[in-house]
Design goal:
alpha/beta; UDP-N-acetylmuramoyl-L-alanine:D-glutamate ligase; 4-stranded mixed β-sheet; 13 helices; 32% helix
Length: 396
């Protein structure tokens, strides 16, 4: 059995439940004042979907041909890119967004909400006619799940909607560019220019979409959903699929797969080849990491391996480190809505990359931000600001 000195949870995130409770209850305004100031001139540019979310909470999901009543109805801003950039802005980044809405009441509402959260909307395209994207979301109180029915905007965004001068202005001084792979034709034009300017690119790989493969080839970082790695690589396991992704995408520095309440898994490419290291089976290494996590801990933690040659049978080897992050165990009575949890996670990852946060700190931080979001209805209502007491351990 492999045993690395790096495998135990880092002390910074290894509070006992009693210590964590004591820590949270003892937080005062002085501890909030000790939070480091927002990073100066850290700019994230995002291109992707924004929408209006109609969130209907029901006691249980309806059966076919049922007639039921909602217990609560909220209208909130949504869309992956809009959510992630709102999160990044609340954490202290300067967020710019490229997307498209119609000149209707919903489009105006989206702009107002984004601007109130400090997101720069000056690069958004507003069409005179058509409709703004919107999504019906059914939140099931019984199963704690949500079902989304999305209606795309019309007319769709095309590259000619965004003048070259606007694109260059949006990219000016950007530290990172993020794509949710919607508006893929426009996204690819922006990504190629960002790559030419050597601006790092993060891609949200939610599922197979038109244009995704082209964007992945330009990506420095990828955050994907649980099913994506195996679906994209056609490999039989998630660890093997992550190795395959790093082999197929030579520019990629790391890939993270989010696993909901199970946390997340991250494979980071080593800056130098670990040719002197012994080969380590990636499946066995993951099992070792799982055994080193503390199942009694309610707050997010991270365990990691040493840099080594990670082997996936029948696929190949890659030099790197494997990270296993846990999610916060949210009490059932506090879990309200998981809509946008992945976007919150990505917003926190964008912040971590821009501020140089190490991965072993980034993963629990992103999990904590996502957990905050899940305690309120809608994708943005629960997104924390950087002064939120729950984030203090990560930002002091």
């Amino acid at each position: 059995m492999l045993c690395f000195t790096h495998l135990s949870p880092l002390p910074l995130f290894s509070f006992s439940r009693r210590q964590l409770t004591s820590f949270r209850t003892s937080l005062s305004s002085s501890s909030i004042d000790s939070v480091s100031p927002p990073p100066e001139n850290c700019i994230v540019l995002g291109c992707g979907g924004i929408a209006v979310d109609f969130l209907a909470t029901v006691d249980s999901y309806p059966q076919p041909d049922d007639k039921i009543r909602s217990t609560c109805l909220k209208v909130r801003g949504g869309g992956n890119a809009g959510n992630a950039l709102t999160c990044a802005s609340r954490l202290g980044l300067n967020a710019r967004l490229i997307s498209k809405v119609a000149n209707d009441s919903q489009g105006k509402g989206i702009l107002e909400e984004l601007e109130s959260d400090g997101v720069d909307t000056s690069f958004l395209v507003v069409s005179k006619d058509g409709n703004t994207p919107f999504t019906y979301i059914i939140v099931d109180k019984q199963t704690k799940t949500r079902t989304c029915i999305h209606t795309p905007g019309d007319p769709p965004m095309v590259p000619t909607d965004l003048p070259q001068s606007s694109m260059l202005s949006a990219l000016d001084r950007a530290n990172i560019v993020y794509f949710d792979v919607r508006l893929h034709e426009t996204a690819l034009v922006i990504a190629k220019e960002a790559s030419r300017k050597k601006i790092p690119i993060l891609v949200d790989a939610e599922k197979k979409r038109d244009g995704l493969d082209d964007l992945l080839q330009l990506a420095d970082y990828v955050v994907c959903t649980a099913k994506f790695p195996q679906a994209w690589t056609e490999e039989s396991s998630t660890p093997g699929a992550l190795v395959s992704m790093l082999l197929r995408l030579p520019k990629l520095k790391f890939v993270i797969v989010t696993l909901g309440e199970e946390g997340c898994l991250m494979l980071e490419r080593a800056p130098k080849d670990a040719s002197e290291s012994k080969e380590t089976d990636v499946e066995s290494l993951l099992e070792t990491l799982k055994h080193r996590t503390d199942s009694t801990t309610t707050f997010p933690t991270c365990v990691l391996s040493e840099t080594t040659k990670l082997k996936a049978n029948g696929i190949g080897t890659v030099s790197g480190r494997l990270f296993l992050g846990t999610a916060e165990k949210i009490p059932p009575e506090e879990l309200v809505d998981t809509t946008g949890a992945g976007d919150a996670f990505i917003g926190a990852v964008l912040y971590a990359i821009c501020t140089g946060m190490p991965p072993e700190k980034m993963l629990p931080f992103a999990a904590q931000v996502a957990a905050c979001k899940c305690r309120a209805l809608g994708a943005r209502t629960g997104l924390p600001h950087r002064t939120d007491r729950r984030l203090i351990p990560f930002l002091v």
